[in-house]
Amino acid sequence: MNLENFKFTNDQKTFVAEEIERLKKLENKTQTEDLILTLVSSIESGSPTKQQTVSFERVMKNEFKKYKARLELDKIKEDEKKLLASLKKEAQAAQVKDRKKRDHKLISIGALFEMVEFPTEDKGIITGLLLDAIEKSKSNNGLFQQFKISGDKFITEREQSKKAKSTVVDNSQ
User: Fold this and answer.
1) How far, in Å, are 87, 104, 112 from residue 117 at the CA level?
2) What backbone phi and psi angles, to 5 degrees, belong to 47?
3) Which DSSP letter does residue 30 get?
4) 91-128: per-residue pLDDT in tens?
5) Secondary structure in 3-state letters for 91-132
6) pTM (global) more than 0.85
7) Rounded distance, CA 113 to CA 13, Å?
8) Of 28, 67, 119, 169, which has the fewest Cβ atoms less than 10 A away?
9) Using CA of residue 71, residue 74, residue 76, residue 82, what is the dihedral sign?
Protein backbone atom coordinates (compact mmCIF):
# COMPACT_ATOMS: atom_id res chain seq x y z
CA MET A 1 0.00 0.00 0.00
CA ASN A 2 1.35 3.43 -0.92
CA LEU A 3 1.03 5.58 2.18
CA GLU A 4 2.46 8.66 0.47
CA ASN A 5 -1.03 9.62 -0.75
CA PHE A 6 -2.25 10.00 2.84
CA LYS A 7 -1.76 12.84 5.30
CA PHE A 8 0.33 10.87 7.80
CA THR A 9 3.48 11.92 9.62
CA ASN A 10 6.54 9.70 9.19
CA ASP A 11 5.86 8.07 12.59
CA GLN A 12 2.26 7.46 11.58
CA LYS A 13 3.31 5.97 8.23
CA THR A 14 5.64 3.54 10.01
CA PHE A 15 2.91 2.65 12.49
CA VAL A 16 0.27 2.18 9.74
CA ALA A 17 2.51 -0.08 7.69
CA GLU A 18 3.41 -2.24 10.69
CA GLU A 19 -0.18 -2.30 11.94
CA ILE A 20 -1.56 -3.43 8.58
CA GLU A 21 0.99 -6.27 8.49
CA ARG A 22 0.09 -7.24 12.05
CA LEU A 23 -3.65 -7.20 11.33
CA LYS A 24 -3.27 -9.35 8.21
CA LYS A 25 -1.65 -12.07 10.35
CA LEU A 26 -4.39 -12.10 13.00
CA GLU A 27 -6.92 -14.93 13.01
CA ASN A 28 -9.47 -13.44 15.40
CA LYS A 29 -10.07 -9.78 14.67
CA THR A 30 -12.12 -7.12 16.41
CA GLN A 31 -14.73 -5.13 14.55
CA THR A 32 -12.32 -2.19 14.20
CA GLU A 33 -9.56 -4.45 12.90
CA ASP A 34 -11.95 -5.93 10.30
CA LEU A 35 -12.99 -2.43 9.25
CA ILE A 36 -9.36 -1.38 8.80
CA LEU A 37 -8.61 -4.43 6.66
CA THR A 38 -11.74 -3.84 4.56
CA LEU A 39 -10.65 -0.23 3.95
CA VAL A 40 -7.12 -1.43 3.10
CA SER A 41 -8.56 -3.88 0.56
CA SER A 42 -10.62 -1.13 -1.05
CA ILE A 43 -7.60 1.18 -1.21
CA GLU A 44 -5.29 -1.55 -2.55
CA SER A 45 -7.83 -2.40 -5.27
CA GLY A 46 -7.05 0.99 -6.72
CA SER A 47 -10.54 2.46 -6.73
CA PRO A 48 -11.35 3.64 -3.20
CA THR A 49 -14.06 6.19 -2.67
CA LYS A 50 -13.17 9.51 -1.08
CA GLN A 51 -15.20 8.43 1.96
CA GLN A 52 -13.11 5.23 2.29
CA THR A 53 -9.86 7.17 2.01
CA VAL A 54 -10.95 9.77 4.59
CA SER A 55 -12.28 7.02 6.90
CA PHE A 56 -9.01 5.07 6.63
CA GLU A 57 -6.96 8.16 7.50
CA ARG A 58 -9.17 9.02 10.45
CA VAL A 59 -9.29 5.46 11.81
CA MET A 60 -5.53 4.99 11.48
CA LYS A 61 -4.79 8.35 13.12
CA ASN A 62 -7.05 7.32 16.02
CA GLU A 63 -5.29 3.94 16.22
CA PHE A 64 -1.95 5.76 16.24
CA LYS A 65 -3.16 7.96 19.12
CA LYS A 66 -4.22 4.85 21.04
CA TYR A 67 -0.86 3.26 20.31
CA LYS A 68 1.02 6.33 21.58
CA ALA A 69 -1.23 6.47 24.65
CA ARG A 70 -0.49 2.79 25.39
CA LEU A 71 3.24 3.48 25.09
CA GLU A 72 2.93 6.46 27.44
CA LEU A 73 0.85 4.42 29.87
CA ASP A 74 3.43 1.62 29.81
CA LYS A 75 6.15 4.18 30.52
CA ILE A 76 4.12 5.62 33.39
CA LYS A 77 3.54 2.12 34.82
CA GLU A 78 7.26 1.37 34.58
CA ASP A 79 8.12 4.66 36.29
CA GLU A 80 5.54 3.87 38.96
CA LYS A 81 7.10 0.45 39.57
CA LYS A 82 10.54 2.04 39.91
CA LEU A 83 9.19 4.67 42.28
CA LEU A 84 7.38 2.08 44.42
CA ALA A 85 10.52 -0.07 44.54
CA SER A 86 12.54 2.97 45.58
CA LEU A 87 10.02 3.90 48.27
CA LYS A 88 9.96 0.32 49.54
CA LYS A 89 13.76 0.29 49.70
CA GLU A 90 13.79 3.60 51.58
CA ALA A 91 11.16 2.31 54.03
CA GLN A 92 13.20 -0.83 54.64
CA ALA A 93 16.33 1.25 55.18
CA ALA A 94 14.44 3.42 57.67
CA GLN A 95 13.22 0.30 59.49
CA VAL A 96 16.77 -1.05 59.67
CA LYS A 97 18.01 2.31 60.97
CA ASP A 98 15.24 2.44 63.60
CA ARG A 99 15.93 -1.16 64.63
CA LYS A 100 19.68 -0.45 64.96
CA LYS A 101 18.92 2.65 67.02
CA ARG A 102 16.61 0.66 69.30
CA ASP A 103 19.13 -2.20 69.57
CA HIS A 104 21.88 0.27 70.50
CA LYS A 105 19.65 1.82 73.16
CA LEU A 106 18.78 -1.57 74.68
CA ILE A 107 22.38 -2.75 74.61
CA SER A 108 23.50 0.49 76.28
CA ILE A 109 20.94 0.01 79.06
CA GLY A 110 22.05 -3.59 79.52
CA ALA A 111 25.67 -2.44 79.65
CA LEU A 112 24.78 -0.11 82.54
CA PHE A 113 23.63 -3.11 84.60
CA GLU A 114 26.90 -4.86 83.79
CA MET A 115 28.92 -1.70 84.56
CA VAL A 116 27.49 -1.42 88.09
CA GLU A 117 27.95 -5.19 88.52
CA PHE A 118 24.26 -5.68 89.22
CA PRO A 119 23.95 -8.86 91.26
CA THR A 120 21.25 -10.58 89.18
CA GLU A 121 19.80 -10.87 85.70
CA ASP A 122 16.36 -11.77 87.04
CA LYS A 123 13.82 -9.72 85.10
CA GLY A 124 11.36 -9.67 87.99
CA ILE A 125 13.89 -8.25 90.43
CA ILE A 126 15.11 -5.61 87.98
CA THR A 127 11.56 -4.61 87.04
CA GLY A 128 10.49 -4.47 90.68
CA LEU A 129 13.47 -2.32 91.57
CA LEU A 130 12.73 0.11 88.74
CA LEU A 131 9.02 0.25 89.62
CA ASP A 132 9.90 0.93 93.25
CA ALA A 133 12.28 3.76 92.24
CA ILE A 134 9.60 5.30 90.01
CA GLU A 135 6.99 5.07 92.80
CA LYS A 136 9.35 6.65 95.36
CA SER A 137 10.22 9.46 92.93
CA LYS A 138 6.53 10.41 92.74
CA SER A 139 6.53 11.33 96.42
CA ASN A 140 10.09 12.76 96.39
CA ASN A 141 10.53 15.23 93.53
CA GLY A 142 14.31 15.41 93.89
CA LEU A 143 14.91 11.64 93.85
CA PHE A 144 15.57 11.37 90.12
CA GLN A 145 17.99 14.30 90.36
CA GLN A 146 19.80 12.51 93.21
CA PHE A 147 19.94 9.33 91.10
CA LYS A 148 21.37 11.33 88.18
CA ILE A 149 24.06 12.99 90.30
CA SER A 150 25.06 9.66 91.82
CA GLY A 151 25.07 7.91 88.42
CA ASP A 152 27.01 10.65 86.64
CA LYS A 153 29.60 10.64 89.43
CA PHE A 154 29.99 6.85 89.16
CA ILE A 155 30.36 6.99 85.34
CA THR A 156 32.90 9.86 85.50
CA GLU A 157 35.01 8.08 88.13
CA ARG A 158 34.89 4.84 86.14
CA GLU A 159 35.98 6.60 82.92
CA GLN A 160 38.81 8.38 84.73
CA SER A 161 39.94 5.09 86.23
CA LYS A 162 39.97 3.47 82.76
CA LYS A 163 41.95 6.40 81.31
CA ALA A 164 44.48 6.15 84.11
CA LYS A 165 44.92 2.42 83.49
CA SER A 166 45.33 2.91 79.72
CA THR A 167 47.89 5.68 80.29
CA VAL A 168 49.91 3.34 82.51
CA VAL A 169 49.75 0.61 79.85
CA ASP A 170 50.74 3.08 77.09
CA ASN A 171 53.71 4.40 79.09
CA SER A 172 54.99 0.92 79.88
CA GLN A 173 55.32 -0.02 76.21
Assistant:
1) 45, 20, 8
2) -135, 55
3) -
4) 999 999 999 999 999 999 999 989 998 998 899 999 99
5) HHHHHHHHHHHHHHHHHHHHHHHHHCCCCCCCHHHHHHHHHH
6) no
7) 80
8) 28
9) negative
